[in-house]
Amino acid sequence: MSDQNGLDVGAGVSGAVFRPGDYRAATWVRALADRIAETAARLDRPVKLMHICGTHEHEIGRYGLRDLLPDTVEVLAGPVCPVCVCDSNWIDLAIGLAVDEGVVVTSFGDMLAVPGTVPLRGEARGDVRMSLLDARARGGDVRAVTSIFEAARIASERPERQVVFFSVGFETTVVATAAVLLRGAPPNFSIIEANYYTPPATHLLPTLPGFDVDGFLLPGHATAITGTGVYRHLPEQGLACAVAGFEPVDILLAVLELLEQLARGRPRLANRYRRVVAPEGNLRALSELVRVFGPTAMRWRGVADIPASGYRLRPAYRSASAQARFPGAASATPDRVREHPAGCRCADVTLGLARPDACALFGTRCSPDNPYGPCMVSHEGTCRAWHLYGTARGRLRVETAGGSDAHGTV
Asked: Span 33-61, mean pLDDT?
């Protein structure tokens, strides 16, 4: 049972109902941790789960949730961050626009420091590449914005200048880009089409060598746009999966759901974020999105070229493509072997093949104040989250309440 303000705990968890204040309640966290431990003991084998959301990684680190799990249950971070997987070709294009074309390049703040493939001359740390911040230091007009709406306003206020928005993101941000273009952007405004679509990546990951994950925690905000059906391929591939929210109870509830699916031997597509995510998604947002963008193959940095995993402007909106508007600024295809700087293990971290602290550069030559690879640059990057919350420093003692509360038992 559930109501508009509550969270239906769902099958396998005794039908209790959560109230808004319970999403961080220590009693529920403790009860869920106990149920997770009991279910993991029934499985009697190591389990690897993967999330694909930077916000999930931050909340797991912020609340020390990994330290509430039994040693047999590991939660890995996959390709969680669009900034981290953004093709270096798009970054080189943005740098070229700012430095060589005299364009105003606008972008979300964390994209500004991500290195592309152009060597940074005079750098003593080794294989360091140029970023948009370096382009700014060389006289380029590069500006941080909080949204595409702010970028479009800059274009309206400066009609004599060409303004480009670095449109990088997953499903949640591309809908805003579609909304602006659908309603009529200024004629001097265009976008870099670095928008990624996550489901095809989750279809590819289980086929890669060394990938041995048992189930996926799916991103609550992205599925709020797309709906849940876009991940129906995961159970068909034998993988447990559950949409998860972002509070401690949301995440632990999804972990428990995955373990229960594995214990039953029946993977399914579960929604543990029903207070936000509808099966059909946001139909109005999807309607506007498909009018402006169509599917296209995209390069996921350090991963692969994945068919239909990106968004390309449809012919009616191609005039808003910075790549089409400034063909001379498009860089040559970069050397895929060198997508990341020498020694950087962001590719392995992105694939869940290595923990951030397995990289020799982590916390030494690569830190949030002086990042070397993209996973440390972005606020949603896995390496940055591990550095921020001390995840690599060993298990924490996370205090939770014991037993149950007045709302019922899990």
From this structure: 96
